[in-house]
Automatic annotation (TrEMBL):
Gene3D superfamilies (alphabetical): Translation initiation factor eif-2b, domain 2
Chain segments carrying region Disordered: 106-132
One example GO MF annotation: translation initiation factor activity
The species this protein was found in: Hirsutella minnesotensis 3608
Composition skew (Polar residues), residue ranges: 113-132
GO cellular component: cytosol; eukaryotic translation initiation factor 2B complex
TM region(s), chain numbering: none
Keywords, ordered alphabetically: Cytoplasm, Initiation factor, Protein biosynthesis
Name by which UniProt lists this protein: Translation initiation factor eIF2B subunit beta
Broad class of the protein's primary localization: cytoplasm
Annotated InterPro entries: eIF2B_beta_subunit, IF-2B-related, IF_2B-like_C, NagB/RpiA_transferase-like
Family: Belongs to the eIF-2B alpha/beta/delta subunits family.
């Protein structure tokens, strides 16, 4: 069986290669199919695939203004979320791109025009006449040292005085390029050239091209953030883990592995690996055994414990490190099934619980129904269809993910540093726009 890069599904690399020669519609449909069939699964692969397809939407789709671009991105994002609603990172990436577009458009609207109103008033149109300041009075000092005010002679007004601000000083943005020709009824200052429909169309195309380039650059930065998140999180390992600590990890993800191995480079401690009970299929613990070999090569003692013996070891545990598939707005952590029991045991014994999460996994959603976040898997790992009477008489449900309550978590470590639960709200506000919180709902309503 060919080796697979940790944290990536086997079909992700093939899908990314196929984007170069495929039309946008075909690439979108293929990603939707892969998400539905769970051939691309996991937080990082889903985030990477979503970022790539949204970049294609910005680069290849047809749009003439910011509203059109927002509609294209939100429409595609809504279909991706419907294909796999359990992967919260898909909606997170769409919100990040929507916020990026709004920020770039806002910068264009606030960009100063080439000639402001004050500059138009201060610049003389006739070079033969000296410039006169629009001041009605001036002061001078008499012989006694007192300041007296004299009225300045009124200056003759020049033809073509600006009577409407909106007719001249219109911010140059995609939102009001077309409004410049109709705004204001007052006379305009005539320059050497006149505005023509051709020049306005060229300016509109230039603005569209500039915004497209800026948004594409922003999406590339988001992709870089995803690829560098694990390394930046691992940079906090030496501060969190001390020599002689007993650190408990539950079904370690690639992020957790990198975090532990970074600490192992300069620390000597003991790692307890909490694993689920053996199931019917062979090879369920291959990933854990590979991690144990890496720890042994780094000189770290690793002990594998089962869920039944968890409390027997918890009194020796100094810190629990958990990976996260997503973190919702209230601080709840969506992670692998069984982590909630580990967190509750750590809380009872006074051990700290640390969650490792990239910023792209932090979701502004705060669902009222927590059960909607749980993903259910194949029950055949626990009961076989060969057990006919048991299968017919018992409903067996096997949870793949579960929600760890926020009150069980002490610290969140992201690629931006270490944070408490109270600080999550400000992080969400920095990365998402309030109007995009329910983008998949208003997009479907518009259609």
């Amino acid at each position: 069986m060919p080796s697979v890069t940790p944290g990536y599904a086997p079909d992700l690399e093939k899908y990314l290669k196929s984007l170069k020669g495929q039309p946008l519609q075909a690439s979108t449909e293929k990603l939707i199919s892969l998400l539905k069939r769970r051939q691309i699964r996991g937080s990082e692969p889903c985030a990477v695939a979503t970022a790539h397809i949204l970049l294609q939407v910005v680069a290849k789709s047809k749009w003439q203004d910011v509203e059109g671009l927002l509609d294209n991105v939100s429409g595609t994002g809504r279909r991706l979320v419907e294909a796999q609603p359990k992967e919260l990172v898909v909606a997170n990436m769409v919100r990040r791109v929507l916020a990026l577009i709004r920020d770039e458009a806002a910068e264009d609207r606030n960009e100063p025009s080439s000639e402001t109103q004050s500059e138009a008033l201060m610049t003389p149109t006739d070079t033969n006449v000296p410039h006169q300041w629009p001041v009605s009075t001036y002061t001078k000092q008499d012989s006694a040292g007192d300041y007296i005010s004299n009225s300045a002679p009124p200056q003759p007004t020049r033809p073509g005085v600006i009577s409407s601000y909106s007719s001249v000083n219109v911010p140059k943005s995609l939102f009001n390029l077309l409004s410049a020709s109709t705004a204001g009824d007052g006379p305009l200052i005539r320059n050497s050239g006149t505005s023509t429909p051709t020049s306005r169309g060229a300016q509109a195309n230039s603005q569209v091209h500039a915004l497209r380039s800026e948004v594409i650059d922003g999406i590339e930065e988001i992709k870089d953030e995803i690829s560098q998140a694990d390394d930046l999180i691992a940079g906090s390992a030496e501060v969190q883990i001390h020599p002689g600590d007993h650190v408990l990890v539950h079904q370690p993800s690639p992020t957790v592995e990198r975090f532990i191995l970074r600490a192992a480079a300069k620390r000597r401690f003991t790692v307890l690996i909490a694993a689920e009970a053996p199931q019917r299929q062979a090879g369920e613990d291959v990933h854990t055994s590979v991690f144990r070999k890496k720890l042994a090569a780094a000189g770290i003692t690793a002990i594998t414990i089962r869920s039944a013996g968890l409390m027997a070891y918890m009194s020796r545990v100094d810190k629990v490190v958990l990976g996260a598939r997503a973190v919702v707005a209230n601080g709840g952590v969506v992670t692998d099934a069984g982590a909630a029991a580990v967190a509750r045991a750590a809380k009872e014994m006074g051990a700290g619980v640390v969650v490792l999460v990239g910023m792209y996994k932090l979701s502004p959603e705060n669902p009222f129904d927590e059960a909607s976040l749980i993903e259910w898997g194949d029950s055949s790992t626990f009961v076989s269809f060969a057990d006919g009477p048991l299968v017919r008489g018992v409903e067996v449900r096997s949870a793949v993910t579960e929600l760890v309550p926020p009150e069980l978590v002490d610290t969140y470590i992201t690629n931006l540093g270490t944070h408490s639960r109270d600080h999550l709200a400000s992080l969400i506000a920095d990365h998402y726009k309030q109007e995009d919180a329910e983008f998949h709902l208003w997009s479907s309503a518009d259609q």
